[in-house]
Design a protein that fits this description.
The structure is a single chain. This protein has about 180 residues and is mainly β. The protein has one domain. It contains one helix and nine strands, in the order αβββββββββ. The chain has a nine-stranded antiparallel β-sheet with strand order 1-2-3-6-7-8-9-4-5, with no helix packed on it. β8 and β9 form a beta hairpin. The longest helix is centred in the first third of the chain and has 19 residues.
Length: about 180
């Protein structure tokens, strides 16, 4: 009889546990501060994709502050920004063979360079200049108002041509891309 009472008491305690711990105490999925993002385009039927993590300004000075001028930047956050192309390209007139690459940039107040690097799979802050395939000058445009979240996009796509845009704060750095 004592065993039966003890069993009933244990079952009652276990049954009341959900009421003792409301849902506000349960684990919630974590939303990263710099969520993963990607840009994809088809050029002459072949896919080109850039995968990156998109940081936000959150009240910080971006270029010349968080992202120093004159230093190689991972062009995003977290893991390295990756370019995957199934077609040979020219980017700003520079030949880029089909393959997988890491994209970095070298921002300066009046001039940016896109760095296409052969090393892949690394964390974004691991940069090996000896693995550079190319450093390509980019065009710069000032945005009319600050853009809170960094973005990479393909725009003005026609047939085998597009433009790769990197936007954040009031900066739009871009480069023409063509499938070959």
């Amino acid at each position: 009889m004592k065993f039966a009472r003890l069993l009933v008491a244990c079952i009652a305690v276990v049954a009341m546990l959900p009421a003792a711990y409301p849902q506000s105490h349960t684990a919630k999925p974590h939303t990263p501060l710099s969520p993963p993002a990607q840009a994809t385009v088809l050029l002459s039927g072949k896919q080109l994709t850039v995968k990156y993590s998109a940081p936000s300004m959150r009240g910080r000075k971006i270029f010349g502050g968080l992202v120093p001028y004159g230093k190689v930047w991972r062009t995003g956050a977290n893991a390295a920004t990756t370019l995957v192309t199934s077609v040979n390209l020219t980017m700003g007139g520079t030949k880029i063979p089909a393959g997988t690459y890491t994209l970095y940039t070298l921002p300066n107040p009046n001039r940016w360079e896109l760095i296409v690097n052969r090393q892949t799979g690394q964390w974004g802050t691991v940069y090996s200049p000896s693995k550079d395939l190319a450093r390509i000058p980019m065009e710069l445009t000032t945005l009319p108002s600050p853009q809170e979240k960094m973005s990479i996009s393909f725009e003005n796509t026609q047939g085998a041509r597009t433009e790769l845009h990197i936007r954040w704060d009031t900066t739009d750095a871009w480069i023409p891309v063509q499938a070959k």
